[in-house]
Specification:
By secondary structure, the protein is mainly β. It is 7% helix and 48% strand.
Length: 111
């Protein structure tokens, strides 16, 4: 657990920031037709951060077409953890009524 220290049974970084949850407000659905004629569908989360910036900044390939936007259920989150090198690693997503792992355990596995 490089970069983390144990205090009273809890693992914390030097900044006491481990897990961040940002709201997922919807999902962007796109389609991309390949040269061989196959069509690929992609679904990507649209997130809002606590600062209110970076709404919907998703790069689309020039061949990608937007099919639609699906609203996310209230209480949906993208979850990231602070790594020892001060970068954030995607840990997963939380959706109401669905199982999710212990995020601290997931973060420790990635260090």
């Amino acid at each position: 657990m490089t970069g983390f220290k144990q205090l009273s049974g809890e693992i914390v970084s030097e900044y006491n920031i481990l897990i961040t949850k940002e709201p997922v407000v919807g999902f962007l659905v796109t389609a991309n037709r390949e040269v061989d004629g196959n069509c690929w569908i992609s679904v990507r989360p649209l997130e809002a951060n606590w600062e209110g910036g970076d709404f919907f900044s998703i790069h689309l390939d020039k061949e990608e077409k937007i099919v639609g936007i699906i609203p996310a259920p209230h209480g949906s989150y993208i979850v990231r953890g602070l790594m020892p090198d001060d970068t954030y690693e995607l840990l997963g997503y939380e959706f109401p009524g669905a199982y999710h792992p212990d995020w601290l355990d997931e973060l420790i596995k990635k260090t």
